[in-house]
Design goal:
By secondary structure, the protein is an alpha/beta fold. The protein contains 9 helices and 9 strands. The chain has a 5-stranded parallel beta sheet. It has a 4-stranded parallel beta sheet with strand order 7-8-6-9, covered by helices on one side.
C-alpha cells in the first residue's frame, strides 16, 4: 500500500489533514501554490511535516497514494486532472478525517444560512451538555480535531466544494437548507450540476 499522502493547500483544513495523516502513520507532504501563514508553518515545522510553498512540485505530488485537496482548488486544474488520470484518489479533508472518527456527525449545507444554522445547532448541543465540536467552513479543522481532541458529535458546515471531494463519508444527520444559483462558474454554469453537488450530502 502506498502510504504517501499529499496535502494540497496549507490552510486550516490542509494543516489539520497533515497532522491527522502523520498521526495515522502516513508519509506526509504538504504543498501550497501560495504562501503559508506563519502559524500554520509553525504547526508543520514543530511536527517535522515536510512542506513547500509558492509551487506544486509535480515530481513529489504525482507519486502520492492519496491526495487531500483544499476545497478552494478546482477539479479542472491541470494538476488535479493529472492525478485523476493516474488513478490517484483526490478527496476532501472531511472525507479523510471521517475515516478515523467514530463520532456522530450533523452535516449542514445550503446556498444560504449554513453558518447561522451550524452555529445554532452547535450551541444547542453544547448547552445540552454534549461533547461537541464544530467544523467545516466554520470552527476548527475537522481533521485537526479528530487528531488531537476528538469529540462525540460534530456539527459540520459543508460547502458544495467540500461535498465534491466526499466519496466514502456518511453523515448521520444531513441538513439541506435551500438551493439557489451560486458558484456556477465552478459548475460550468449548469444549475443541475450545482444541485447534484449539494445532494451529495445524503450519499452513503
Amino acid at each position: 500500500m502506498n502510504r504517501k499522502t499529499v496535502i494540497l493547500g496549507a490552510g486550516e483544513s490542509g494543516v489539520g489533514s497533515a497532522i491527522l495523516a502523520q498521526k495515522e502513520g502516513y508519509d506526509v507532504f504538504v504543498s501550497d501554490l501560495g504562501s503559508i501563514r506563519d502559524h500554520y508553518k509553525d504547526a508543520l515545522i514543530s511536527r517535522n511535516i515536510r512542506w513547500e510553498e509558492g509551487r506544486h512540485s509535480e515530481e513529489l505530488i504525482l507519486g502520492a497514494g492519496i491526495v487531500v485537496k483544499s476545497p478552494g482548488i478546482p477539479d479542472q486544474t491541470s494538476l488535479i486532472r493529472k492525478l485523476k488520470a493516474k488513478g490517484v484518489p483526490v478527496i476532501s479533508e472531511i472525507d479523510f478525517a471521517g475515516r478515523f472518527s467514530r463520532a456522530k456527525t450533523v452535516c449542514i449545507t445550503g446556498s444560504n444560512g449554513k453558518t447561522t444554522t451550524t452555529l445554532l445547532t452547535y450551541s444547542i448541543l453544547k448547552n445540552a451538555g454534549l461533547n461537541v465540536g464544530m467544523a467545516g467552513n466554520v470552527g476548527s479543522s475537522f481533521a485537526w480535531q479528530v487528531a488531537e481532541k476528538e469529540h462525540d458529535v460534530y456539527v459540520i458546515e459543508l460547502s458544495s466544494f467540500q461535498l465534491d471531494g466526499m466519496y466514502d463519508f456518511r453523515a448521520d444527520v444531513a441538513v439541506l437548507l435551500n438551493i439557489t444559483p451560486d458558484h456556477l462558474d465552478r459548475y460550468e454554469y449548469n444549475m443541475q450540476k450545482y444541485i447534484d453537488s449539494k445532494f451529495r450530502i445524503i450519499q452513503n
